[in-house]
Design a protein that fits this description.
The complex is a heterodimer of chains A (291) and B (327). With 291 residues, chain A is α+β, with helices and mostly antiparallel strands. Chain A folds into 2 domains: 10-88, no CATH class; 109-290, DNA polymerase, domain 1, CATH 1.10.150. Chain A is built from 12 helices and 7 strands. Chain A has helices spanning 10-15, 37-42, 52-69, 72-75, 112-119, 176-183, 193-209, 228-234, 245-255, 266-269, 276-279, 286-290, and strands at 21-24, 33-36, 90-97, 100-107, 138-141, 144-147, 160-162. In chain A, the strands form 2 sheets. In chain A, strands 4-3-7-5-6 form a 5-stranded mixed β-sheet, sandwiched between helices. In chain A, strands 1-2 form a two-stranded antiparallel ribbon. In chain A, strand 1 (21-24) and strand 2 (33-36) form a beta hairpin. The longest helix of chain A is centred in the N-terminal third of the chain and has 18 residues, at 52-69. The radius of gyration of chain A is 21 Å and the shape is globular. The two termini of chain A are 42 Å apart. Chain B has 327 residues and is α+β, with helices and mostly antiparallel strands. Chain B has a domain at 221-323: CO dehydrogenase flavoprotein, C-terminal domain (Enolase-like, domain 1, 2-Layer Sandwich), CATH 3.30.390. Chain B is 28% helix and 20% strand. Chain B is globular. The chains are: A alpha+beta (291), B alpha+beta (327). Chains A and B meet through strand 6 and helix 7 of A and helix 2, helix 3, helix 5 and helix 6 of B. The complex binds flavin-adenine dinucleotide (FAD) and iron/sulfur cluster.
């Protein structure tokens, strides 16, 4: 074990062996205990029982602190850069993300959210609770909204993933919903916003497909109007701690008022087509990977 | 999270073969299993992803439906045949979790999701379900969410599913496939009460795969519903929930189905309510007597006595609503 108080290098992080230092002061003790993240996770010290969540939190906090001290570009993991040490359970995977084919070598345990944020620097989707309870990590998979934190990346190979970074059109113009969020003050701190946006796009598609909700009067009837009650219930998987809900509801209601906007500009976004969930797994061809 | 291997078989036979390895687990949408792996409660050595298996809904000759276990909760709730013939099932599904989770979650995974007892998640606590023989911190602890029916001194956890409550009321059949071949179980026989072995939650044999659910033809289910009572209006687990269908002919109750959620270690088919109601003339008084009969065996804990009255009232409210012709 190395015990370095210095910033870990990107190679260390890539290799998954970074001795990222976690310091915490045990109660009634002035001694700093320094452990590597890997030891925290891999040894089951009895006194650490029940502390895994806080260890994870410290890990991300420390990473954020280090990240903040450096230029963002330094955190970008280059696709060409192979990890120095390959863990035995690391495998090569192919993804479709925001219309582009991506190949990465990652640990099988990587969540879709960690893949996006830590490996691909797509930091729009946020890690809020990391247990499916807040919706900040919402992205679209084959046009359906999902919680990227509960998804193992390996399960989403060959599926069409769209994150908030992929909502703008091919000319970089904001999605109408994004513009409406600005117009209606649909956020304060902005942490839940990428999740709210992706969720609302998925919600509009569900409504168009006739998926009922808990507040739908007659679930057997065809065609559901986007009433305020429907909208609020359907967006209940996305929490906003600032309380910007009124602006959020107004922005979504305006954007998806009857027949106004298609949820996504599908052809521009998608190479494989959003039907791939039914068609099953499809890896990008070599040609597509280069492009 | 412990390391594991991952496979995504294309058919049930291959999945069962893969699951024969020691420590293997089936993986649906992962919304429960991945969370529990992250907490260290589950430590599978191999994940067998079954989301590529049968996810279709097919008509049975008698008018029932056969549903592949890999179907997403959303797709099941939105199917037109399900919405019109079994509205309680659609309503139960959309009352659960969030739209994002329902999009990810499979039917099979929803059936086998594990309890939300906080002590089960917390590996610093004693829990007979997580670690048999260690004790149960919920008995004397914070047990507001826990069971009032059918619990034991070993475990007072509840089954968290909404979907399953409707399946219990509808007399569904669970189709299983394992190394020893195929078999079918009545839905009510799938989940177990805790007894002395709360770690054994279902009658599934090791490595057995849920392949499909069958819903019998049940015309009375067209007039059925699901009501869930919880701490907030959406996106929370049930304190109490009721799935019910009611058939009234010539002013008397010809048939009735009632199942409860949030009250027991398994989806609770309220057979006593049903027996007390058949042949009666529907009235609030009759509904009240029937629900009191079901709850007479309730054994509330320190914090959850309110559930007894809540369950009684919710049963009465739902049956009154159905008797009044409102679905
Ligand atoms: C924040 C949050 C809130 C929630 N709220 C609710 C709620 O209000 N109501 C509700 O009902 N649920 C709720 N849930 C739970 C959710 O419905 C379940 O997590 C989901 O249904 C599980 O399905 P899955 O496919 O993701 O299962 P997984 O997590 O993939 O698997 C769950 C279990 O099922 C087993 N399994 C999966 N498929 C099969 C199969 N075919 N055969 C045999 N075994 C199989 C797995 O091995 C595992 O043990 C909530 C979940 C979260 C995270
Ligand atoms: S109620 Fe059951 S799950 Fe909860 S702590 Fe007790 S034994 Fe464990």
């Amino acid at each position: 074990m190395r015990c370095n108080a210095e910033t870990p290098t990107q190679d260390d992080i890539d290799a998954g062996i970074a001795n990222i230092v976690v310091c915490f002061v045990p109660p009634r003790s002035a001694v700093f205990v320094i452990f590597t993240i890997r030891q925290l996770f891999e040894t089951q010290k009895p006194w650490l029982k029940g502390r895994r969540r806080s260890a994870e939190f410290q890990q991300s906090t420390v990473l954020n602190l280090f990240g903040a001290a450096r230029r963002p570009a330094d955190l970008r993991v280059e696709r060409s850069r192979k990890p120095a040490v390959r863990l035995s359970y690391e495998v090569s995977m192919d993804f479709w993300i925001n219309g582009r084919a991506v190949s990465v070598d990652i640990d099988l345990r990587t969540s879709l959210l960690d893949l996006l944020r830590d490996q691909l620097s797509l930091i729009g989707a946020k890690k809020g609770c990391n247990q499916g309870a807040c919706g900040a990590c919402t992205v679209l998979a084959d046009g359906e909204r999902i919680n990227a934190c509960l998804a193992l990346a390996v399960q989403y190979q060959g599926r069409e993933i769209v994150t908030v970074e992929g909502l703008a059109d091919s000319h970089g113009r904001m999605h109408p919903l994004q513009a409406a969020f600005v117009e209606h003050d649909g956020f304060q701190c902005g942490y839940c916003t990428p999740g709210q946006l992706c969720s609302a796009v998925g919600m509009a598609a569900e409504l168009a497909r006739g998926v009922p909700s808990q507040v739908t009067g007659d679930v057997a009837a065809e065609g559901i109007a986007l009433s305020r009650d429907e909208l609020r219930e359907r967006m209940s998987g996305n929490l906003c701690r600032c309380g910007a809900h009124n602006g959020i509801v107004a922005a979504i209601a305006e954007t998806f008022a009857e027949g106004k906007n298609a949820p996504l500009d599908l052809p521009a976004r998608s190479r494989s087509g959003f039907a791939s969930a039914e068609a099953g797994w499809r890896a990008p061809s070599e040609e597509e990977k280069v492009a | 999270m412990n390391p594991f291997t991952y496979t995504r078989p294309a058919d049930a036979a291959a999945a069962i073969h893969e699951a024969a390895h020691a420590g293997a687990r089936y993986l649906g949408g992962g919304t429960n299993l991945v969370d529990l792996m992250r907490e260290g409660v589950e430590r599978p050595a191999a994940l067998v992803d079954v989301t590529g298996l049968d996810r279709t809904i097919t008509e049975l000759p008698d008018g029932g439906l056969r549903i592949g276990a890999a179907i997403s909760n959303t797709a099941l709730a939105a199917d037109r045949r399900v919405r019109t013939r079994y509205p309680m099932l659609t309503r139960a599904i959309v009352a659960g979790a969030s739209a994002q989770i329902r999009n990810m979650a499979t039917l099979g995974g929803n059936l086998l999701q594990r309890t939300r007892c906080l002590y089960f998640y917390d590996d610093a606590a004693r829990c007979n379900k997580r670690q048999p023989g260690s004790g149960c911190d919920a008995l004397e602890g914070f047990n507001r969410m826990h069971a009032i029916l059918g619990a034991s001194d070993a475990c007072v956890a509840t089954h968290p599913s909404d979907l399953c409550v409707a399946l219990a009321a509808l007399d569904a059949t669970v189709h299983l496939e394992g190394a020893d071949g195929k078999r079918a179980l009545p839905f009510e026989a799938l989940h177990r009460l805790p007894g002395d072995t709360p770690e054994r939650e279902t009658e599934l044999r090791p490595g057995e795969l849920i392949t499909a659910i069958e819903l019998p033809a049940l015309p009375m289910a067209r007039r059925s519903t699901y009501r869930k009572v919880r701490d907030r209006a959406s996106y929370a687990f049930a304190l109490v929930s009721v799935a019910a269908a009611l058939e009234i002919e010539d002013g008397t109750i010809k048939d009735v189905r009632v199942a409860l959620g949030g009250v027991a270690h398994k989806p609770w088919r309220a057979r006593t309510v049903e027996a007390l109601l058949r042949g009666q003339q529907p009235s609030e008084e009759v509904f009240r007597r029937a629900s009191a009969g079901e709850l007479s065996s309730a054994r509330p804990l320190r914090d959850n006595g309110f559930k007894v009255e809540l369950a009684r009232r919710t049963i009465v409210a739902v049956l009154s609503q159905l008797a009044g012709g409102r679905p």
